[in-house]
Design a protein that fits this description.
Chain A: Belongs to the 4-toluene sulfonate uptake permease (TSUP) (TC 2.A.102) family. The complex is a heterodimer of chains A (about 325) and B (about 140). By secondary structure, chain A is mainly α. Chain A is about 75% helix and about 5% strand. Chain A has one domain. Chain A is built from 12 helices and 2 strands. The chains are: A mainly alpha (about 325), B mainly alpha (about 140).
């Protein structure tokens, strides 16, 4: 019960912090940047720290919460927010991947064929996103609306997808078999080594191409989509799916990051406090998550994403003077 | 018990290269980023940045520095600024998967399919890095 209230409190903090950020942003704009400069890194640190607390048990990376909430509440251009979101997702993925690979949970052999395709679409997504906001006077509002719509899709995916801990793969497809897409890891809860096989690789590659484009375009991590594809479609056990997804995110986001760096859309002033905040928050969040009920956290994050989706669409429509 | 799990050497090489590069990148990004945030001189004035960070990125740079940005010269030629040094750390982070792929390629041995996959990914990565320099107008503004 205490844990439930703790998470409710955290959700409340996110909203208050977000609304506070919006109020501060309005105030700063009204006064011509009236807030002292040092307030912004602190606000970002606090904001991303709370996101870091919530993210670990929700099954989504911090970037997927940071981008929509920052777009809805903070005064930064969506370009800088996407740049920061991408670097945050990249840092998280790079920090956790080596350990997951050594344990046998993340498999480079599964990652390689899908990333060959998704890296290209991720780069194209990054180019298209920056081109729209810069080529069209109201491009940033269309991007904001599209982000809201993507969040609705993520919401539906999270609502409807059921994770299978150990999917049964009776037969591999020819390509997966030829590439030797198998692996094993020691599962402490079962006290034994679990072996697995991957299947339906060709269909998986198509899905990853689409996901890569969306991730690159909006600066989102893609764990929300990678995991269901690997787990439900390709038959990877849930732990292998989440771990391999981390490596995929790392490679895709690193490739897309160069587009943002080369356009000047990565500002250390935004990125550094955000990366530090989410890193510290995620470490504490991972410990909190042990006691939290995963289903409750999942619903909390879904509610936040739904709210962010609505706010982004409203913000975009207001910018276009539709409402 | 855990020793019974066989991890392909290319996985291990990938992980080691990624880990080392990530530590270096994070250290450079955070140390110089914090020095910038506590007030040491940077390429971008923070007050000006705050006043203009609501603008699309191209307009932001025109307002703040009077420049158009294509490529990496904007921070590589201003490495006296703490923010640009922090950017160097971000670049090292963004290079980590490339170096990991090169390390994995070196250990791929006779696994021809994976040698091809790694070569394709390395080529894609190098293209992603070089594109803003060799094709500055394509897909941009």
């Amino acid at each position: 019960m205490r844990v439930k209230w703790l998470w409710l409190f955290l959700g409340f903090l996110v909203l208050v912090f977000g609304l506070g950020g919006e109020a501060l942003a309005s105030e700063a704009a009204a006064k011509g940047g009236g807030l002292p400069w040092w307030a912004w890194p602190l606000i970002l640190f606090g904001f991303t720290f709370i996101i870091g607390l919530i993210a670990p048990m929700s099954g989504v990376g911090g970037g997927v919460l940071f981008v929509p909430l920052s777009t809805a509440f903070f005064p930064f251009s969506v370009d800088f927010i996407r740049g920061a979101g991408l670097i945050m997702a990249l840092t998280s993925a790079l920090s956790s991947s080596p350990q997951l690979i050594r344990k046998g949970l993340a498999n480079i052999k599964v990652m390689a064929p899908v990333v060959c395709v998704s890296m290209v679409t991720s780069i194209i997504g990054g180019i298209v996103g920056l081109w729209i906001t810069n080529a069209f006077p109201s491009g940033k509002y269309y991007i904001t609306i599209a982000l809201g719509l993507v969040l609705f899709v993520i919401f539906v995916v999270m609502l409807t997808s059921k994770r299978v801990e150990f999917p049964e793969v009776k037969e591999q497809d020819g390509l997966s078999s030829a590439l030797g897409l198998t692996g094993s890891w020691f599962e402490p809860t079962l006290n034994k080594v679990v072996e697995y096989k991957i299947t339906r690789l060709p269909v998986g590659i198509i899905f990853f191409a689409l996901v890569g484009f969306i991730a690159g375009m909006f600066g989102l991590g893609a764990g929300w989509a990678n995991v269901p594809v690997l787990n439900l479609l390709m038959g990877a056990p849930i732990k292998v799916a989440t771990s391999t997804s981390m490596v995929i995110i790392g490679v895709n986001d690193a490739a897309a990051a160069w587009i943002y760096i080369a356009k000047g859309a990565v500002l250390p002033m935004i990125v550094v406090p955000s990366v530090i905040g989410i890193s510290i928050g995620a470490r504490i969040g991972a410990k909190l998550a042990v006691k939290a009920k995963p289903v409750f956290v999942k619903y909390l994050v879904m509610a936040i994403m739904l709210l962010a989706a609505v706010l982004n669409i409203i913000k975009g429509l207001k910018g276009l003077h539709v409402i | 018990m855990e020793k019974q799990v066989y991890i392909d050497p290319l996985n291990i090489s990938f992980a080691r290269a990624m880990e080392i590069t990530t530590y270096i990148g994070l250290a450079v990004m955070v140390i110089f980023g914090l020095l910038y945030l506590v007030g040491l001189s940077g390429f971008v004035d923070m007050k000006q940045a705050i006043a203009n960070w609501n603008l699309p990125v191209s307009e932001f740079w025109k307002e703040v520095k009077g420049i158009e940005i294509h490529g990496y010269a904007w921070f590589l030629s201003n490495l006296k600024g703490m923010d640009c040094l922090s950017m160097l750390g971000i670049c090292i982070l963004a290079l980590a998967p490339l170096l990991a792929l090169v390390a994995a390629l070196a250990r791929a041995g006779g696994q021809k399919a994976y040698i091809i996959f790694f070569l394709i990914m390395i080529a894609e990565f190098v293209f992603a890095i070089m594109k803003p320099i060799i094709l500055p107008g394509v897909g941009g503004h």
